[in-house]
Write a structure and sequence with these properties.
Layout: E1 6-7, H1 20-38, E2 45-50, E3 57-62, E4 68-73, E5 80-85, E6 90-95, E7 103-108, E8 114-118, E9 130-134, E10 141-148, E11 164-171, E12 174-180, E13 187-194, E14 198-209, E15 216-219, E16 225-230, E17 233-238, H2 242-245, E18 251-254, E19 261-268, E20 271-276, E21 280-285
Parallel strand pairs: 10-14
Antiparallel strand pairs: 1-6, 2-21, 3-4, 4-5, 5-6, 7-8, 8-9, 9-10, 11-12, 12-13, 13-14, 15-16, 16-17, 17-18, 19-20, 20-21
Protein name: Esterase-like activity of phytase family protein
Region (Disordered): 18-41
């Protein structure tokens, strides 16, 4: 059962150089800090806020009012769903009735139902993988237990450890899970399974050539653009629908300097909201 929502309002200086060399270093650092604060790290990336009351943001989804978002903390933190505005100001917090073993992603269907994926699996050894299905407006929560159809060893050999899922999305009654390739850092496997409670099997749909580790995924509102987030990088796959996007060659964009990028959701068809484990919120306009 949801606990009572608690509404909460949230709300460096560089030391002066003592020598010419120190002054130069200090100026460089101040310029770097100014750039980060102004959101000018890379073209199209703009810092819009900071979630000071959320530790280790690990996922991002649109909330039930315009301009607001849901997020949560990483493994070992309290099982709390946070609602924030576009500046990162904390609006609500909901204590959820299940443990946070290793929450890594949050997906959302077309009716507002949320799916929190508890499938962080660094060593590919977990057998208790789950997705929690919940409606923020009610006390309804259900559990989807799942296993990967092609995993036979727990853990497999080191070169085959590609069963860590930190990215998910919902589409047309199915959940899509994207793995984080900790073994080779070359391939994100894509699994699908029904979005219904009970024991499910995640079946391998395809594999994507991604030179990095996928930390979140989202589909644009028009269904034509798939975004995969990595650590300080972004991959965009485009097509007429999700099926064709999954066959497209990824476009790669650097987000260098943004921090440990973990959460991703489309704001509109061309614009993304991105959160970092450090609590920063960015808007990113996808280049044409």
């Amino acid at each position: 059962m949801f606990a009572t929502l608690l509404s909460t309002l949230v709300g460096s200086s560089c030391s002066e150089a003592q020598s010419d060399d120190k002054a130069l270093k200090g100026k460089k650092k101040k310029d770097k800090d100014k750039t980060a604060a102004d959101g000018e790290l890379v073209p199209g990336l703009q810092k819009v806020g900071s979630m000071d009351n959320v530790m280790e943001s690990s996922g991002l989804a649109r909330a039930n009012t315009a301009g607001t978002f849901y997020t949560f903390a990483d493994a070992g933190n309290e099982p709390i769903l946070y609602k924030v505005d576009m500046t990162g100001r904390l609006l609500e917090r909901s204590q959820l009735p299940f443990s946070n073993v290793d929450w890594e992603s949050i997906a959302q269907d077309d009716k507002g139902t949320l799916f929190i994926t508890d499938a962080g699996n660094n060593n590919s050894s977990r057998r208790d993988l789950a997705v929690y299905r919940l409606n923020p407006g009610t006390s309804e929560t259900t559990k989807i237990k799942f296993a990967y159809a092609d995993q036979k060893a727990f853990p497999p050999g080191k070169k085959d450890r590609n069963f860590d899922c930190e990215a998910s999305l919902w589409h047309a009654g199915k959940l899509y899970l994207f793995t984080k390739d900790r073994a080779q850092q070359t391939t994100s496997k894509v699994y699908t399974m029904p979005d219904q409670p009970g024991q499910q099997t995640a079946r391998l749909l395809t594999s994507l050539s991604i030179p990095g580790e996928v930390t979140d995924a989202n589909l644009s509102p028009d269904g034509k653009r798939l975004a995969l987030l990595g650590r300080e990088e972004l991959f965009i796959l485009e097509g007429s629908d999700l099926a064709s996007a999954l066959k497209a060659t990824p476009r790669h964009f650097s987000l260098k300097g943004a921090g440990q990028t973990e959460g991703l959701v489309f704001f509109d068809d061309q614009t993304l909201m991105i959160s970092t484990e450090e609590g920063t919120l960015y808007q990113y306009k996808i280049p044409q």
